[in-house]
């Protein structure tokens, strides 16, 4: 069991605030501005979601970003894709972060404050997705680095928008605007940026007013299919991603 005061300030790339009604807001950031995702945040977010899931005093979670993007920038610092030991760490963290999000047994709302060009699987594992008109979706870095998009997006995008659409989205690096994403069923509401968090809190406050076990068990009921999907395919997808990363490393070494 985790207590909020023991972990609220433990994560340098997540600003955590919780209201008296148990609504927890998690704002991802780097230095107070837009998040720059790297190997250190990859490791950090495993424990972040674990601690949130272990706190029985939280009644609903709002996940959001900072600045003008939810997540659109990645830096290789802290990643080792090119050795067995390094990729073993990435595989473990990639698998655990997904299961730890699903182990948060209270309803989750994602408030997308801008583009989502990487790790959109975080949002797709939550229950309600709000976006701004400026929000766009794309799986950008995998193919740019020459590696398989196997960290969960290969499972969740075909599941959410349909098999043909999902495969097209990943294979062509399709850019989905907010309206198209809403039409496809990825986004529930498109909200002006200055109203985004207020709307997220409005929904979360309604959920937090439910009896505690009702909210908790509803999240559990609604995520059983997602849990089976992730359990079945996440490790395999990450292994395929690792094989492709090893091939990229071999090619780079031959050229260098």
TrEMBL record:
Q: Which InterPro entries match?
A: ClpP/crotonase-like_dom_sf, Enoyl-CoA_hydra/iso
The region annotated as signal peptide is none
Query: Record's Pfam families?
Result: ECH_1 (PF00378)
Family to which the UniProt record says this protein belongs: Belongs to the enoyl-CoA hydratase/isomerase family.
The protein in question is named: Enoyl-CoA hydratase/isomerase family protein
